[in-house]
Amino acid sequence: MSEKEIIKQLKKLPSEAQREAADFVEFLSEKYLQQPEETDSPKKKSILESSFRGMWKDRKEMQDSTKWIRDLRKSRFTD
Hints:
Blueprint: H1 3-12, H2 15-32, H3 65-77
């Protein structure tokens, strides 16, 4: 249905129905065009932008993280 046809049909309606249609259009506009910020999904940041990046850079045991994890697992999962 074209915009002209919608307006033509709308003009045929009684004034109360026209108000209802206007309210419904406003509702749809708010729902689809002006979405509130609370419902917007947060944009995911790159790990490079994280405030946690580099937080252990000065710790000597973390210089070789693979070795650190291996040693940690060994101490916890072996008898």
